[in-house]
Structure formats: C-alpha cells, structure tokens
Amino acid sequence: MIERTFIEQGMRKIQLEKYLKKELDRAGFTGLDMVKTPLVTRIVLHVARPGLAIGRGGQNIRQLTEEIGQKFGIENPQIEIQDIKQPELDAKATVDKMVGLLERGYSWRSVAFNTIRNITEAGAQGVELVLKGKLSGKGGRKRKQRIAQGYMKKVGNQVKLVDYAKASAYPKAGAIGIKLSIIRPETVFPDKVNIKEIIKSQQDKEKAEKEAQKEKEAAEEKEKAQEKKGSENEAEEKAGKEQEKKKGNAEKKEEKKKHEGEEKTASEKEAEEKKTEGKKPGKEEKEKKKEAVKKSGKEEKK
C-alpha cells in the first residue's frame, strides 16, 4: 500500500534527523530538507555554524555522505549546508543554545531573560518561554516559570505561523523542560489589521493615481501641441509652395510679354524698312523725270 511507503519515508527522515543532530550538535543543527530528483537525493542541512559542519577541506561532508548512503539506504545523497541568518529568531537553535548553557551550570534565570532580550532585540513580534522542572535548586520542589513578551497566537490554524521548539536540559540539580514560541518580524496574520497602514496605503494609491492622471494629461497636451505645430508647419509649407507657384506664373507671364514685345518691335522694324524701301524708288523716278524734262528743254532750245 502507498500509505506504508509514506510512513517508511517519514520514519527514515526522523532517524536521519536524530543521527545528524548527534553528529552536528556543535555546529548548531536545527533541521533538514530532503528533495529527491531522478539523479540524486539532495539533503539540505540548516546549521547555525556552517564552518564546523563542513570541516577542514569538506572532510565532514564527505564522511557524512558516505555514512548516510550506507546506514539509511539513500541513493546518491548530496549534502548542502545552509546557514541560519538570524539564529536568535530560530526557535530550535535558541532552545539548543539554552540547553547547553543550563547543562554547563548557568543560572536558569539569567539564561531565560537574556534569551528573551536577544529575541526581542532581533525584531520578533512576540516571544513566549516556558521553563518547567527543577528550578529551585537542590532539595526544592519542581515548578513552572513562564516569561512572555509581545504578541502571541495560542489557538487556531494561525498557530502554524508561530515558530515552536522544545527540549530538555539535564543539569546536576534535575531535569528542566524548555518550550519556546517565536513570531518572526515578517509573519503576517490574516486577522491582524492595522487601520493606519490601510488608510496610508489607500492615500498613497490615490496619490499615485492622481500623479498618473496628471502625467497622462501632460502627455496628451504635449501630443496636441506637437500636432498643432505640425499642422502649422504644413500650412506654412503649403503657403510657401503657393507663393512659389504664383511667383513662377508671374515670371512666365513677364517672359511671355517680353517675348511678345520683342516680336512686335521686330515686325514694326520690318514694316518701316519695307515702307522706306517703297518710298525711295518714287523719288528717283521723279528726279529722273526732272532730268529728262530738263534735257528735253535744253534740246528744244538748241
């Protein structure tokens, strides 16, 4: 059955987490992600101190890869180390750090309040720490201590957005149980509404819309001005062409008149020449007649 396969995979992941927790305790191991691909199985390890997890020249990574492949039957494991950017906001890393301090003999009170202060300074929206066990010291009865600050979700589906971790410390006086809940700065709850931010966002949106409208109107006015300028230029060009055409027509008319005047003067000259030519022979004939009359008169006298 397919359910059996999922159960086996979940059990294998739990066993692998326990093994890696033991091997990478000093590196601050908090969890892992497994991604299976057709070629390899990628195992992403989340650690607070990646240098200790990698080892000198990657020696620890190679050793872990071989042991994981042999012990857990994972084909072609490929280990990747991912650094925790803010260990103070990671519940698992913080709880493991508290366990180490308590087991080394530090006072639970100083450890608890320093932890709350560090988480708050890191920017958490809310934090809740519950310590239960042998807090009174040797010979005292067990008791419970709760330290909380900020906003915290306790019930409902939104509890999944809260980072939660628990662990047990075993100092000399007796066992102490630790439960830590952290709401990170980037967490947004659906029911948590900030009216001021909503009003501000609406005002910013309206302002952006008005600016966009102004820009659009300015662009339209600019286009209209360009169109008007283009039409004026076209009108000027048209008027210039008409003037040139008129000027050309006037020049043609002047040339025509000049040509006609030249032809007229030439014809008039020809007519005058012909007239003068017609008049000259008449005078000669008269002179000849006079000479002939004179000659005839002289002959008669003789």
Automatic annotation (TrEMBL):
Top-rank taxon, per record: Archaea
A biological process from GO: translation
Keyword Ribosomal protein listed: yes
SMART domains referenced in this protein's UniProt entry, alphabetically: KH
Family assignment from sequence similarity: Belongs to the universal ribosomal protein uS3 family.
Domain KH type-2, first and last residues per copy: 16-85
Pfam families per UniProt: KH_2, Ribosomal_S3_C
PROSITE patterns: KH_TYPE_1, KH_TYPE_2
UniProt KW Lyase keyword: no
Function field: Binds the lower part of the 30S subunit head.
Disordered: region residues: 201-302
Oligomeric and partner information: Part of the 30S ribosomal subunit.
Name assigned to this protein: Small ribosomal subunit protein uS3
A GO CC annotation given for this chain: cytosolic small ribosomal subunit
UniProt GO molecular function: rRNA binding; structural constituent of ribosome
InterPro entries named in the record: KH_dom, KH_dom-like_a/b, KH_dom_type_2, KH_sf_prok-type, Ribosomal_S3_C_sf, Ribosomal_uS3, Ribosomal_uS3_arc, Ribosomal_uS3_C
Keyword vocabulary terms for this entry: Ribonucleoprotein, Ribosomal protein, RNA-binding, rRNA-binding
